[in-house]
Amino acid sequence: QVQLAESGGGLVQAGGSLRLSCAASGRTSSNYVMAWFRQAPGKEREIVAGINRSGGTTYYADSVKGRFTISRDNAKNTVYLQMNRLKPDDTAVYYCAGSTTLWIGTMSAQYGFWGQGTQVTVSS
Fold this sequence. Notes:
Blueprint: E1 3-7, E2 10-13, E3 18-25, E4 33-39, E5 46-51, E6 58-60, E7 68-73, E8 78-83, E9 92-99, E10 113-114, E11 118-123
């Protein structure tokens, strides 16, 4: 099994940037499709971005396209989420997730491994 740990969350003003990191341990992250999800208070968990095992294919939710970039460094067992031009609507707990599937799933039920989450708060 793989263990995931997020870092990099915090408080930022609207228009600012943050970079989230997800460090994998236990098994090499290259064995997993990885994704970032987020959950705001009172809302369902939703996918933000996903990346396949090699890093050659990515997926983005429409709400973050052009602002967020997901990437991975398999040598460091780390996945990143670069978030630019942040908006108050981006405020949520962000979770890193791993899946043993071969494709990037968009549903949380498709991911069996989760980090503890990191809070991102964007002030207006």
